[in-house]
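At this stage, I needed to go through a protein sequence along with its fold in token form, as given directly below:
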Amino acid sequence: MGLVGVQENGNGEMGLSGLPLGSKNKYRRMNSELTEDYDDASHQQHQEDRNNSTRKYVLACAVFASLNSVLLGYDVGVMSGAIIFIQEDLKITEVQEEVLVGILSIVSLFGSLAGGRTSDAIGRKWTMALAAVIFQIGAVIMTLAPSFEVLMIGRLLAGIGIGFGVMIAPVYIAEISPTIARGSLTSFPEVFINFGILLGYVSNYAFSGLPAHINWRIMLAVGILPSVFIGFALFVIPESPRWLVIQNRVEEARSVLQKTNDNEKEVEERLAEIQLAAGTAEENLEEKAVWRELLSPSPSVCRMLVTGFGIQCFQQITGIDATVYYSPEIFKDAGVDGNTNLLAATVAVGVTKTLFILVAIFLIDKLGRKPLLYVSTIGMTICLFSLGLSLSLLGQGQVGIALSILSVCGNVAFFSVGIGPICWVLTTEIFPLRLRSQAAALGAVGNRVCSGVVAMSFLSVSRAISVAGVFFIFSAISSLAVLFVYTCVPETKGKSLEQIELLFKDKHEWQVSEVEMGDAENLVQKEQGSEVEMGDAENLVQKE
């Protein structure tokens, strides 16, 4: 009867219930504020849960995609010890030993070349599956090989499978990772290569006591196990959202991005960038075939090729595969006696390599790519020169042995902290979407060719100029790598794949980007802070 409209007038008038009407309004306002606070807390908790779920999912995808890299690492590590017993069992010559060790890297270039076109046709995910199947067949043939010729057939197949895997894993991880963690996650394949090398060294040491006609077969057979886990991984990991967009499967791409990014706004931004890049790719594809563009590149693509192909070649011609494949030979030259002692020393190398790759994961997205590359290449130059000195001047005494082992461990440590993982990160970051898979394949080819040349020539060259002389050459090449990083590698930390592409449009932007990156980050933080303050102010006005 009009009583509903009665309110306190500010002088403490009472309502029919005997309570000040203003008090009811105060209680009502307090309840409203509590409800809003509860809603904010609930939303924040929901966002944190989503962030944790997203991080775990992306991490799982990166781990499963990197399992192929374990195969390469295991093969590299296990062959360094298995070759001792293969030589004893099958009575192969030193030249056959070099060919057997190095042919895998040479043959893997065919897998890498085919991998680019294959991944564009059937997708990144199923290319990884194909790589595992081919390697598995090769590993079985090697395990059962009765002669050098059959062993080589298995080695050729394993090399093709490894070529596919080495090329596709970094591309897949770069395309599925959020920008803020892309560097760390894209370095996972290198982490798993190192883990595989360590497993290979441990396998050598564990089975070295068995008869010579059995132990190397068991060593090689153990390498089949990781490919079994890859089969399980195919039921867990999604297809690359960028490949899905190219196939006009936009809703599937959005679904994948929702699982790998923290919020809807970022999902839509990433999807829009990918669609724009894919649209440009389709237009350019009509104008110029991918390989034709790579063979007659524009100035910006030429700069990308120099950076990507160059960093891949420098990773190998500084001698890392010689150090890993032939570490028993190096330690024997330093004065270590007995197969068991030689293989135990290689385990120390494997442990060092694996531990320091973990350091790279934590630092790559914090310090950036270039600072770690400087530390890596300068450190490797010093360690390689030190190894040459210890082998040439200190002879085979205890001091010489200790310094040689320390230099080898130091070399692999500096390699793992920088150029080892970062060369794969850069190769997958710098190329535009239309060229990414095949340009990455070209970089992997350069990497594998250089690896094969080093592995197949190390023993012969070291017989001609001594092991120490070879490492003096590697040291000189490593010093050139420092200069290459300074002149040809831009900083890509904190940029989306599409933003990195713009860096190469104008080489001047490299220096500007590196100088202003800190200022830009501060500006973004200030803008985010002002947005937060503005949001708080708006909420306060609404409450009042």
About this structure: The radius of gyration is 29 Å. Residues 109 and 472 are 28 Å apart (CA to CA).
